[in-house]
Specification:
The protein is α/β, with parallel strands linked by helices and 113 residues long. It is 40% helix and 25% strand. It has a 5-stranded mixed sheet. α2 links the parallel β2 and β3. The longest helix has 16 residues.
């Protein structure tokens, strides 16, 4: 078990349970061969450490192909955020750390502007 990682691997089998059990879930759809994904990974992990009350999940699109297909992932990385079971944010490409942090605060504060 890798205890240095604060994020969790997510696949279709556990997806609904995770969405049901956690008020805020942020997913990083990535692939092993994706250079931008490697650049984004430390940002994702760092924020997962900073915000332990939020569920950070990583979806390897090469492994969890069914989940990637369900969300019609066409490019990686793609970030998705769910609040109370609803998809509230989706963006392909690297999300700069400051934008990502603003998104997290926005989700945590419950504003919908």
């Amino acid at each position: 078990m890798n205890h240095s990682s604060k994020s969790h691997d997510v696949n279709l089998d556990v997806f609904e349970t995770i969405i049901d059990q956690h008020p805020i879930v942020i997913l990083d759809f990535w692939a092993e061969w994706c250079a931008p994904c490697k650049v984004f990974a430390p940002i994702f992990e760092s924020l997962a450490e900073t915000f332990p009350d939020i569920y950070f999940g990583k979806v390897n699109t090469e492994v969890a192909t069914d989940l990637a297909e369900a969300f019609q992932i066409r490019s990686v990385p793609t970030i998705m955020a769910f609040k109370n079971g609803e998809l509230v944010f989706e963006q392909a490409g690297i999300l700069p750390a400051e934008h990502f942090e603003k998104l997290i605060h926005h989700l945590s504060n419950g504003r919908s502007d």
